[in-house]
Structures are given as structure tokens and as C-alpha cells.
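Lab meeting notes turned into a lecture example. A postdoc, R.K., suggested we walk through two folding results consecutively so the class can see how the record format repeats. The first protein's sequence and C-alpha cells come next.
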Amino acid sequence: MMKQQIPETNMANAATWNGVAYIGEDIALADRLGEIPVPRDARRMNFIVLALCTNGSLKYTLDTREITVTPGELLIVSEHHVVNNYEASPDIEGLAILMSVDFFGEVINNVSDLSAIFLYARSFPVMKLNDVDAATFRRYFYAIKNRIADNHNHFRRVLVRTLLLAMFYDLSNVIYQFQQIGIQPKKRAEDIFTRFIKLVENNCRTERRVAWYASQLGITPKYLSEIVKKVSQRTPNSWIDNYVVLELRVMMKSTTKSIKQIAEEMNFPNQSFLGKYFKEHVGMSPSEYRRGKG
């Protein structure tokens, strides 16, 4: 995730390097936004970014949209987006949190509770924070950064996850307030996409067929695929798999249920089928993931 900034040889032990606080390839926090090297060519994101601009401005292209971030605005970019044409003003300042998708899976306790922030960010990747919310974000940032730097604390990783979870809920509440007053009108395509994601959240344990979701929405599978691809640059199957894998990660890390029990709850034909599915999407077996190799 941060290979351009952090030397591989130090990553196993060090908690900070050149002003960046990090835990391996899982999470990194930097309070000198202008000093983070960013590729100038198009790159598909494979991690999550939250960045608060405090001075100056930055511009970039997110998929096909031109985005500008100014002081007081929070940028949220999730995985699979294509970022290109990054340009920051000479006086750019801000705070940035970079987090792997795997670590995000460790942080959350319930997939549906936290998806609002990333659903909202897919349509509105830049969110204007008021002074109180911006100050709240800064407090979380430095609290997390200080916990990461304390690599002698046996519970460091747990504390970081707990603080991140609380921060996500606070940000989700900000988004909820925006949605309640109707600050951002939805287009039909975005409305269908949002309804599709909500259905996936609530039903991915038992339903993984695109046709089923299309039926619930009263549209054809082909039309659903076209809408989802247009809005998110991902297929419906990709979103379904994403939520299934997140659910599996959460269940394996936060419960003592056997793999067989999880396979039954997630409506897999058997434990072996779940194992193959998990390894295909995560790169390791469920037992390896539970032993902490993920």
C-alpha cells in the first residue's frame, strides 16, 4: 500500500517512518499531505483513502470525473476507483489515512452499518465538513496516529481498530445529516444502484444471483448490470462478491463459529465450496486467515 514511502526492511517493526505512522501494509497516517508521492499516471486503487484538506487545493480525475478538493473538505476514495491527473497546489496541507481493504474488513463489526459512508462517497467523493466535524476528524486522526506510534502497547492494533470504527460512525452520521435534509438529489441510476447495494447488504448471506436482485428491483438483469457498471465501474457480481467476502472476514475474525457453521449461515453448499471461494477472493484458506496470516 505504502511501498513508495516506507522501506520494506523496516515495516515489520517500526511504527513511524519519515513522519508517517503505520502498521505494516495495513494502515498509514500522514500529516504532511504535500509530501506523499502520488503516481502521475492512471492507477486503479487497491486501498481506501480518507484525506482532509486544511490548506491549498488538489485536483485529480476519479474514473472520468474531475475532482477538486479545497480546505475543510474531506476526500473519500474506496478501492477499484481509477485515479489520474493528480495535481496539488504548492501550499497543500492536510491529513491522510490510507488503509488496506483487508484491514478495513478487520475494523468493521457489521458490513451494513458502515457501507453508507462508502456508498455516499462513490457518488460524492468530496464532502464539506463544518468546523466542528473537521475538528472531530483531526482529533481521531492524531489519536490513531499516537496509538500506532506506541508500538510497545500490546493492544495497539485493537485500539487502532476501535478508534477507526468510532470515526467511521461519526462520519456516517455526518452523511446521514446531509441525506436527511436532501442536500444531494439522486439521479435514477444512482437511486437504483443504492437500492441494489442495500439489497446486497441484507441478502448476500443467502442470495448471490444477479437475476434475483434485478427481480426485487423490478428491472431486467441486463439493465441492472448496465446501471451498476455505469455508476460504479464494477459489475453486480463484483459487488455481491465484495459483500460476501466482507461478511466472511467479519464472521471469521469476530466469532468462534466453525468454518462449517459459517458455510451453512452463508448458504454455501458445503465447507469445501466456501474454502475454494474464500481462497479465490482472498488468496488464502479460511483457516490461514483465522491464524492471522491475513
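The second example is placed directly after the first for contrast:
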Amino acid sequence: MTAPSPAPPRAQPGTAAPETATAVSATVRQTTRRAVPWLILAAIAVAVAVLGILLTGGRVSQGTPLDAANAAPTGAKAVAQVLRAHGVEVRSATTLQAAREAASDDATVLVYDPQGDLPADGYRALAGAGRTLVLVEPDFRALQTVAPDVAAAGTPGGPERADCGVRAAERAERIDPRAVSDQSAGYPGTFRVSGDGVACFTDRDGRASLVRTTFDGSTVYLLGSADVLTNEGVDRLGNAALALNLLGGHRALVWYLPSLDDRPVTGPPDIAALTPGWVTPVMLLLVAVFLAAAVWRGRRFGPLVVEKLPVVVRAGETREGRARLYQRSSARLRAADALRIGAIGRLAATVGLPSTATAQEVADTVAALTRRDRGAVHGLLLERIPRTDRDLIALSDDLAELERAARAAVSPTAGPTGRMDE
């Protein structure tokens, strides 16, 4: 059997207890653990970025599609510059009011509204006064408003010849309305005419890429493909000839791209408009169930009764129970504070100090009375921190010894301190 290791020497009264120095600098393992969350976040960010690049194919912003000032492949700056070189004044507009003001005299108005921002009344406001409307890739609402006899008929199949009496189409002879690439400006489509409209560039199934009709006294051209006008698609076959002859019929061209400002403002919807119809009955049913449950449980439990319980707890049990709680939670500092508070109060009463005396005043008076080192007494009553249970027991013993010394210095015949000694 091996002999138990000797207990560390007790600190003598008047000397400060030595403390073990702890390392302040973080170790490599600690630094690595702290960096793990940041490394995980960085990996997630890189994964999201890579996924975004894969989903978008590394494409960058192409600007506003079919914008007259956009030099990107999906823009239409090339057509606009050529028209200006031929004496046509190109006026850009992004709101209905600006478009109407720019088309005050005879003008051609190009409308490209892929988001459906322009209401039906907007097309009526642009028609008339000798204007020519060119609607590029019109949606269902635009067709129902301007040309109810024309319906969408799907994507174009390939290059087609004019085969109609429209002058701009005959000069172009043949166009290619198909999308140039996956980054095309819009979604090329075709039309099927059932009324008096003139269909051009018709395929075998009777689907046309260009339709001429009339609306409120204005000539209207329905162009099914925006790629005919874009920078990357205007140079194919007769696309350029069709674009220049279609848009250069007047001295002025209003290049109108509707925006969110053209949407009708009706005010925000109220909660009743946003709530489904079944929500109100369900809420009423839940309220009724809650009230019924409250009444049921309340009647079952009966009224509240206040009853005084004659329970007497001895002070010793309270003290021992609190000590066990401190021990269970390893609250050594809190237990040491409780011991010090009691000792300082008893020492103040012993040396005759008032209850308003500070702990420093009590420590100075006791040190002078017992002729002990002032720093040691201050450390015992205020500064010593128990690291282990052994240190806490030593602190309790030193406090008891200090109280006995103080009582002996005041009255050599004084009895015990009244504390529970083990």
C-alpha cells in the first residue's frame, strides 16, 4: 500500500495564501476550437457562391433588356444609333406620362413590357393621333386589349419569309426570330390571326412572327420576338431591315419600357382581404373551446383556499441546508462571502464599532487590537479566494481563530464566539 500524500501546509495567520499562476495565452488547441465556427461559416459562404455561379452559369448583369442605351447583347443600342443616323429622333421613356409627352406629335411608339406593368388603359392612352404602335412580345392582356382577334401560338420554328403586303416585311424579305442564346432578352413567340389582321413571316402551321392590325385609329404592329431588335440578333438575315423600316416610319420614335410606376395604385390591402375565408370561423371556434375549457376546469378545481401551515424550521437546519446547496453547486466563493459577512459583523460588535462601519475599518481595528499584520487581516476578511474545499475550510478556521483572538484581546475572560465549531 502506498502512503497518502501529505496535506499541503496550512497558511499561518498573518501570511497570504499562495496562488497557482494560470496561463493567460491561448493554446493552439484553444485557438483552433475558436476558429472552427468561422471556418464552417467560410465554407458555407464559399459553397453558396459556387452554387450561385453554377446556377447562373457565371453570367453577369446584362442591363435592361431591349434598352435603347444598353450596349450589352440583350440591349438595342445598335438599332437606336442607326435610326438616329437616318434622322429619326429616338426618345426613351419609362413611364406612361413621359411616353405620352414624348409622342405628342406624330411618332412611332415601341412598347416592350415583359413584366406586365402597363395596364389596359395605358394602350388606349398611347393610341390615336396618327401614331404607330409597335408592341414587342405582347402578353395576353395586351393582345386582348389591342388585338382581340390575335392569339399567342407558341415559339417560332425558324427563319421565315415575309409573304405579306406589309412594306417593312417585304423589304426584310426573310428574318430569323428565334432566340440567339439562353441569355436572350425575352421569350420569342408567334401569333395566330383570326380576324382582319395581316400576318407576316408565317410558318407551315400558320403561325406568324409579325402581325399588322389597327386599334383606336392607330396602326399596330405585333412583333413576336425581341431578338429581332437586340444587339446580338439584329444582324441575322433581314432582322436589321425589318427593325429599321418598322421603327423609322416617323420622324420621332418613343422607346417606351414600362416600369413599376405605371402600375395602378389602389392602396395596400386590409387584413380582411389577405385572410382566407376559413380563418375567422376557426378563430371563433378556438375562442369558444378556450372559454368552455376554462369554465370546466374552474368548476372542477373550485374556489381558491388560503390556509396557514404551522411549519417551524430550526435555524440549524436552514444553515446546514444552505451549506449543502453551496457544496453541491461548488459555490465556494459564495460560501466564503457568507462566512466573512458573519465574521465581520461579530468582530465589529466585539471591538465596539457601530453597524455602519465598513469592512476596511473593521479590519484595521481588529489588526491593531490583535497586533497582527494589517495586510494579512485584510486578506483574510476581504481578499482571499478559496480554490478548493480545503481552502474554504482553512478560511473558516482562520476566521474563527481571528474572532477568538479579538475577543481575547478585548476581554481575556471572554467565552466562545457563538459559531458552530466542528
